[in-house]
Amino acid sequence: MKAAITAVAHNTPETVYDNTWFAERLDTSDEWITTRTGIRETHLRYGIGLTDILLPAAKSVLEQRNLQPSDVDCIIVCTVTADRVFPAAASMLQAKLGAMNAWGFDLAAACSGFLYGVVTAAKLVESGAVRNVLLCGGDMMSSILNFDDRTTCVLFGDGGGAVLIEPSTDGTGIIDHVLRMDGNGEKHLHMVAGGSLKPATVETVNNREHFVFQEGQAVFKSAVKGMADVSYEIMERNNLTGDDVAWLVPHQANLRIIDATAQRMGLTKEKVVVNIDRYGNTTAGTIPICLSELHQQGKVKAGDNVILASFGAGYTWGAVLLRWSISSKDS
Ligand SMILES: CC(C)(COP(=O)(O)OP(=O)(O)OC[C@H]1O[C@@H](n2cnc3c(N)ncnc32)[C@H](O)[C@@H]1OP(=O)(O)O)[C@@H](O)C(=O)NCCC(=O)NCCS
Known about the structure:
alpha/beta; Peroxisomal Thiolase, Chain A, domain 1; four-stranded mixed β-sheet; 11 helices
């Protein structure tokens, strides 16, 4: 028995901010942002909780499977921007959904959160420990962005998605994974204050230490290599060539990182899901949003080989190979 994604949905705030909005306030330009990152606009809604954004997506995946909230066994929310430091967003989502029989937890692996979550949820289902997992990935990056820092605030957006992971017996489902971590990357990408190492004080707020800190170029170099390496490795060890792969669903941090990964895999542009132009980097939200749009557009068929790939803070990175399980919307 394998575990498979059996339903998928996403949600983002309605309010859209295009590059011009940033260019009117900061020393940046639409041209710089577009050519260096691929981003044209992001969805942002400062001051609402992540679980408010995830709730419609969670309801939608249950509806797609004709399940009641009481049927959910486990909820995993992959995020670094939960509604509160504690309790977990999973608890808050469970209450909002009325999933009274579910246990669950949050998983913090930043941009690789959803990939780590897919593997964790699959193992819970495959072992028989649970019948299903409501797996969500998303981030409200506006809550940790310094809107005076042009090097970070133009990159990120708010949003997320949900999938249902259930048993599969027809050979489709989650086939293989390569997950990696290197904690030495912490110095290049982190939030300075707000944790136990440096709790919030008047000084940390005045020094603007509750925001994303990123050394873009250092992260870029590791991301290009890391994401391409694991994507190639998962193809090689499953004897796949570019022709065998229907879709690459990459984390959406930078179009140049995505292009480098696709090139290493021998994939043409038509096989690569890109929506960074419309959402920016929603951290743990990028991959479920991509999967949801791909499914909604009827572009992915049951049996298609799909590779998910990511790189993010930690560092954390990885690739997951799955054989798509949901019938195409068109079929
Ligand atoms: C952030 C990122 C887009 C920056 O692109 P880059 O080509 O590396 O650019 P650099 O950081 O080297 O900056 C080049 C110049 O542009 C400037 N710059 C940075 N942001 C700018 C902006 N929004 N507008 C205009 N100029 C900007 C820099 O200050 C720098 O100027 P300088 O040369 O005078 O010092 C890129 O490094 C990146 O995508 N990094 C990885 C992000 C990632 O994968 N994160 C992991 C998941 S969260």
